[in-house]
Amino acid sequence: MTALADRPAATDAEPKAGAIPSFDVTLRIRRYLPESSHGTESYWDEFTVTVHGTDRVLDALHQIKWDHDGSLTFRRSCAHGVCGSDAMRINGRNRLACKTLLKDVNPDKPITIEPIKGLPVVKDLVVDMEPFFASYREIMPFLVTDGHTPTKERLQSAEDRARFDDTTKCILCAACTSSCPVFWNDGQYFGPAAIVNAHRFIFDSRDEGAAQRLEILNDKEGVWRCRTTFNCTEACPRGIEVTKAIQEVKRAMITRAF
Amino acid sequence: MQTHQYDVVIVGAGGAGMRAALEASGRARTAVISKLYPTRSHTGAAQGGMCAALANVEEDNWEWHTFDTVKGGDYLVDQDAAEVMAKEAIDAVLDLEHMGLPFNRTPEGKIDQRRFGGHTRNHGEAAVRRACYAADRTGHMILQTLYQNCVKQNVEFYNEFYVLDLIVDHDLSAGHVPEGEEVNATGVVAYDLATGEIHVFQAKSIVFATGGAGKIFKTTSNAHTLTGDGMALALRRGFPLEDMEFFQFHPTGLAGLGILLSEAARGEGAILRNSEGERFMERYAPTIKDLAPRDIVARSMANEVREGRGCGPNKDYVLLDLTHLEPAHIDAKLPDITEFARTYLGVEPYTEPVPVYPTAHYAMGGIPTNIQAEVLRNDQDVVKGLYAAGECACVSVHGSNRLGTNSLLDINVFGKRAGRAAAEYALTAEFHDLPEDPTARVVAELEAMRSRPDGERVADLRKALQETMDRNAQVFRTGESLTEALDDVRALQKRYRNVSVQDKGRMFNTDLLEALELGFLLDIAEVTVVAALNRKESRGGHFREDFPKRDDVNYMKHTMIYRRPLAQEGEAAEVFDGSDEYFSHSEEFDDYQVVLGSKPVTVTRYQPMERKY
């Protein structure tokens, strides 16, 4: 997984012209291996690996798993920030491991890697995603329409389409929800991701389910729990203005305008 | 061991699997088994669009789309299937719009359309606007929309369950089927990642929608999880795979990384340039230039690099130039891919050209099906109760080279057909008895890997496989390079028998799964190389430098490749198409042989012509 050049051996004293310099990095990883002798106690484990200027945190995790400790467990799939599998806490911030370049997270010091917070940890960096998806399913994340389906497409102006563009980008990685202090303290809270996906339909001019969705989110565990800390916006690897979307849902609830 | 019974079991929850589920679950009791959470599937990485001749922005019709698909596939396309796809494309797009997919819109509010490689007006006159899109995240929107509708319909999912075996009432890999007997698929064996428990799913119909196998190569746009599982399981049970030698190398992968930059960039006006700044595609495809089909563009790029006109310190890539496009236009139409260039290469596409090189992208071949998505067990008979759709299948609408956007179309059209056919068959069929211990094979394999104290490491073998495939079976191939690849794969298959894993646990053992996935990859690489060695011509994505011309007289046929037992002494090996000397090759491995056969190409309207753009 190197860019533009073959990976030089770690022992190369003088990198060849055009080669990307490699460097050593230490990862401090929160381990949880309930089947091991550690039992249900989590602990810190450190690994030092040699990586490249363009390597991502995921590359380092793979190197550890493939060359050092096969039991290190994490989810990943696409490896370029579109599937949403590998959200984790990197130096205390929620990020996608495949979208975070090692050189950008101060590799001079050990980089801490932990599972995202607020969801039960299953093994190492893997958490149980079911509560997260259950909240998502509850907000009716699908187009609701009345009447018969037209034979051709429903018309929608470019402006109406743009109204909810930002929230269509969500990849359900849970980086936002698991960065939210309200969610940490109260797992019943729907959380930012579910509200983002409600927003995506509430503001879609073709949709007629907004009133029902707003009713669901008007619940005591709904949008009013949001304390506007902006953690979610900062955490979103897709650059969605999550807090803004939540505010728009709150406003829609008061004004019933959407 | 837990056992479940469903009318329909769908394996895979990408675009094809979920499209099938939406059809099947309303008609019959259906379960979807997926190795990932559905929204993690690689359909979500598709960027550019989905073609359909809606004619929303300019004149177009499905017959032109059919022609482009056939010509794009270098005439190895089954034309009846291409016709079905191009005709049903229109409803497939409208279905998605009705389900809520947020397509980009024209000023009148209709679905907007843009240009894409190989899609033309009136049989090649000029590029046509046929691709319906949602910015450069069309696949993401399709995956989300299908999942949303599965939530709406309460589709039952088994997430993070890995299907490790297909249960059939005749094991063809062990011998012949007696004349007149039917072969029935009866269930699958799955491994629950969370607990390590084995589950048996008995089903009347099974749909394979397991995706591609790009991880046989090192440089690939494919996800880590695309390891050819479904294809390999079919092969292991003695079913053929079709046209495995045809693999698409997408021209514009980020250099060195393989991450995809959509063809939509060129559709929106981006230009490929060599180290001299020359728009070299003008030489290779004078009419449609940078929008020529992917096989041609990828080969042209590789050729520029070979002839010393590559860019960068090692002269090993070319440049994709978007700098003449308005930043606002780039942001509106290509936001994600320009972000990839910034994030992963530190290149600003507004002002700097982006380093690109071909990346292994798509398997044109796969599990052979007819246009009802029924799986074939030879060149004509179907397996009862078994269906396949999407990249794991070969129907064959892509022939020897798939056109851009036609994969998103394929999953929707044939996913829908597979789901419907599977449910309808299930409503008329009975359950078949399962063997006494259906899990024996899987359990033995898992336990052997887990309990072997020390052995070969998965990562070493996988790296060696990917390196030999990149070196020897990529854009340019020769008999010599392919023989080297085959020797390497054979050696790796031997070493694989001694593979061991470090993680000996039951829960969430991804170490063990990577070992199993490597087994699938090796099987797929093996038949890919054997088929590529046998096809001594150049067509579409398969380019043999030692046989640079297309040879319609001898090779205008689909390759069918089978795994069969070694011939016993004094017994003739099972031969397919014994009369056909060009498809009579077989390769003996240690405990089985790989045997080639063929299947005729369905030609309806278009006779093969020389392919010029």
TrEMBL record, chain A:
PROSITE patterns per record: 2FE2S_FER_2, 4FE4S_FER_1, 4FE4S_FER_2
EC number(s) on file: 1.3.5.1
Cofactor note: Binds 1 [2Fe-2S] cluster.
Catalysed reactions, semicolon-separated: a menaquinone + succinate = a menaquinol + fumarate
CDD domains named in the record: fer2
Domain spans labelled 2Fe-2S ferredoxin-type: 23-119
Cofactor(s) demanded: [2Fe-2S] cluster; [4Fe-4S] cluster; [3Fe-4S] cluster
InterPro entries linked: 2Fe-2S_ferredoxin-like_sf, 2Fe-2S_ferredoxin-type, 4Fe4S_Fe-S-bd, 4Fe4S_Fe_S_CS, Beta-grasp_dom_sf, Helical_ferredxn, SDH/FRD_Iron-Sulfur, Succ_DH/fum_Rdtase_Fe-S
Pfam families in UniProt: Fer2_3, Fer4_8
Keyword annotations of the record: 2Fe-2S, 3Fe-4S, 4Fe-4S, Iron, Iron-sulfur, Metal-binding, Oxidoreductase, Tricarboxylic acid cycle
Residue span, 4Fe-4S ferredoxin-type domain: 160-182
Pathway: Carbohydrate metabolism; tricarboxylic acid cycle
NCBIfam families per record: dhsB (TIGR00384), PRK05950.1 (NF004616)
Sequence similarity: Belongs to the succinate dehydrogenase/fumarate reductase iron-sulfur protein family.
Protein name: Fumarate reductase iron-sulfur subunit
Organism: Luteimicrobium album
Organism taxonomic ancestry: Bacteria, Bacillati, Actinomycetota, Actinomycetes, Micrococcales
Automatic annotation (TrEMBL), chain B:
Keywords: Electron transport, FAD, Flavoprotein, Membrane, Oxidoreductase, Transport, Tricarboxylic acid cycle
Pathway: Carbohydrate metabolism; tricarboxylic acid cycle; fumarate from succinate (bacterial route): step 1/1
TM region positions: none
Subcellular location: Membrane
Matching InterPro entries: FAD-dep_OxRdtase_2_FAD-bd, FAD/NAD-bd_sf, FRD_SDH_FAD_BS, Fum_R/Succ_DH_flav-like_C_sf, Fum_Rdtase/Succ_DH_flav-like_C, SdhA/FrdA/AprA, Succ_DH/fumarate_Rdtase_cat_sf, Succ_DH_flav_su_fwd
Enzyme class of the recorded protein, top EC level: oxidoreductase
Residue ranges annotated for the Fumarate reductase/succinate dehydrogenase flavoprotein-like C-terminal domain, each copy included: 462-613
Membrane topology: Peripheral membrane protein
Cofactor: FAD
EC code: 1.3.5.1
UniProt catalytic activity: a quinone + succinate = fumarate + a quinol
Pfam families tied to this protein: FAD_binding_2, Succ_DH_flav_C
Every FAD-dependent oxidoreductase 2 FAD-binding domain range: 7-408
Family membership noted in the UniProt record: Belongs to the FAD-dependent oxidoreductase 2 family. FRD/SDH subfamily.
UniProt name for this protein: Succinate dehydrogenase flavoprotein subunit
Organism, as annotated: Luteimicrobium album
